[in-house]
Amino acid sequence: MKEILDILIIGAGPIGLACGLEAKKAGLSYLIVDKGCLVNSLYNYPLNMTFFSTADRLEIGGIPFTSITAKPGRAEALEYYRRVADSQNLNLALFEEVKTVGETAEKVYRVETSKATYFAKHVIIAIGFYDVPNLLNVPGEELPKVRHYYFDPHYYFRQKVLVVGANNSSADVALETWRKGAEVTMVIRESELGRIKYWTKPDLENRIKEGCIRAYFNSHITGIREKEVDIQTPAGKVTIQNDYVMAMTGYQPDFSFLEKIGIQLSEDGRKHPVYNTETQETNLPNVFLAGVICGGLDTHIWFIENSRVHAEQIVKHILAKAEKA
Length: 325
Known about the structure:
Layout: E1 4-10, H1 14-25, E2 30-33, H2 40-43, H3 74-87, E3 92-93, E4 98-103, E5 109-113, E6 117-125, E7 132-133, E8 146-147, E9 160-164, H4 168-179, E10 183-187, H5 201-210, E11 214-216, E12 220-224, E13 228-233, E14 236-241, E15 244-247, E16 251-252, H6 255-261, E17 287-289, H7 304-307, H8 309-324
Parallel strand pairs: 1-2, 1-6, 2-3, 6-17, 8-15, 9-10, 9-15, 10-11
Antiparallel strand pairs: 4-5, 5-6, 7-16, 12-13, 13-14
Helix pairs in contact: 1-8
C-alpha cells in the first residue's frame, strides 16, 4: 500500500478548498480531488452572474476577499479562489473523477479515480449539487434546443427563448437574453415570481407588466418540438413558436454516488444524507460531508457563507480523535 493520507477531499469547490486549508493548518496530509477544474461549479455559472453574498461571506481560511463592489461577480470569485489555491500551495488533483470509495482490511479508505488510486484514513465529500439538473420530464426534453445551463446572452440574439422557472436564474436569463435581442417568454408554475435578488425582481416585474417579456403564471410545459412548445395555462393549452427552451429548474446532488459508496439517505423524499451535525461524520466511519451536499434535495439550506464552518468542525473532530487514540 502506498502513502496513506490523513484526509482525501472529494470536490475542489470553495468548501473543499476550505477543508484543505484546515487540514494544512493542522499539519495533516491531504489531497483535494475534483473531476473538473478548480471551483468547477462557479466556472460554469453564467458569465454575468452576481452573488447574493458579500465578498467577506465568500472568504475561506480567513484569507481576505477584496472586491470592487459589495457583491462580487463570477470573474472575481474565480480569481479569488484561484489565488487562494495558488498562494497556499494547496495539494490538488484536478480533472480526476472519483469512481469508488471503499474501506480496506487495514481500516483505511481506498479511493479509485479515473487516473490513480489513493489511500486515506478519512474522506470528506464536498461535491456540491450543480452537476445534476432537475428535469422537466416532458416529451421533447432530450432535444438539443433544451438547455439546463446558461452562460452568455449574446448567443440568443433574435431567437425565440422560453425560460422555465420563477427564481434567480430564470430572472437573470429572461432579462439578459431580452436585453440582447431575444423574444422572451416565461413559464412559471406558481402565481407569482419567486426568490429573486432584490435589485433584479422589480426590473423583471416591470418588463412583464410592460409586455416586453411575456409570462404565463400557474402554467407548465407539456411538450417540446423543434420549432414549438406546448404550454398548459389556466385558460387551456397554448402553443408558441420557439427556438430554445432554457429550463432553469435547479439542480440536485449526485445521490447515486452517495448511495454507491454506502451513505444513508433519509426516506422522507428529501434524500437528506445521514450525518452527525456536530462532527459532519456520516454512517460510514471517518467519512464526512461538507457544504451544500448536506441538504439533500433542499439545496437552499447550505451556502458557502454558512457551510465553510464544516471544514473547521471536521478537522477539529479528526484531531480530537487522534489525541484520544
